[in-house]
Amino acid sequence: MIFHRVDGREEQEESSPSWFNRLEVVEVKKYVEKLLFEHPRHAPEDIGIISPYILQVKKIKRALRDIKDERLENINVDIEDITVGSVEKFQGNERKVIIISTVRSQPEQMKMDQKFNLGFVKSPKRFNVAITRAKALLIVIGNPIILCTDDKWRR
Q1: What CATH number labels 2-154?
Q2: Does position 92 have pLDDT exceeding 70, yes or no?
Q3: Confidence at residue 154, expressed as pLDDT on a 0 to 100 scale
Q4: CA dist 59 to 29, 66, 100, 105, Å?
Q5: What's the chain's average pLDDT?
Q6: Residue 109: pLDDT above 90?
Q7: Do 86 and 19 touch, CB atoms closer than 8 A?
Q8: Is the pLDDT reported for residue 94 higher than 90?
Q9: CA distances from 85 to 47, 53, 61 (A)
Q10: What's the predicted TM-score (pTM) here?
Q11: β partners of residue 101
Q12: Which of 123, 125, 119 is nearest to 101 (CA)?
C-alpha cells in the first residue's frame, strides 16, 4: 500500500453539492501515467480509481482524457478501460491496482460529513469496499490527519 499525502483544499461548484480536490486529481493523473508508461507497464483495465464524491469522479475522468490527448496518439492503449467511480461501482469487482482519492482535507468540512454520514470516512461498509478492491497495489491519496479522525483509517 502506498499512502500519498495531499493537503489541497476541497471545493464545490455552485451547481453541485458534491466535492472535489484539484491537487488530488493531479496526483491521480501522475500515478496513472506512471502505471501505464513506466516499467513495468500495467494495462488500463488493471487500474481502478475510487472516490466517494461524484464531482471528483468527473474531474478525474476529465484528467484521464487529457492523458489520452497528450500521450496516446501513437500508443495502442485505451484510457477508457480504466474504471473510475464511486465505492458502490466497485462492489464485487477487483483490479490489480486501486487508487483511492479521498478528497477531504479540511477539518471544518469533515464535521458536516460526520454529522450527515457522508463520504466513506465514517461508513464502515464503504470503507471496507474501498480498501479491499486491490489485488496487488492500493494507493491512497489524501490527508492522513483528516483520515485518522476515524478509527478504521487510523488503524
Answers
A1: 3.40.50.300
A2: yes
A3: 81
A4: 10, 11, 14, 17
A5: 83
A6: no
A7: no
A8: yes
A9: 12, 9, 9
A10: 0.84
A11: 141
A12: 119
CA–CA dist 135, 150 (Å, integer) = 24
Amino acid at 67: I
Q: Where are the domains of the chain?
A: 2-154
Instruction: Please say if the pLDDT value at position 6 is more than 90.
Output: no
SS (H, E, C) the chain: CEEEECCCCEECCCCCCCCEEHHHHHHHHHHHHHHHHCCCCCCHHHEEEECCCHHHHHHHHHHHHHHHHHHCCCCCCCHHHCEEECHHHHCCCCEEEEEEECCCCCHHHHHHHHHHCCCCCCCHHHHHHHHCCEEEEEEEEECHHHHCCCHHHHC
The residue type of 151 is D
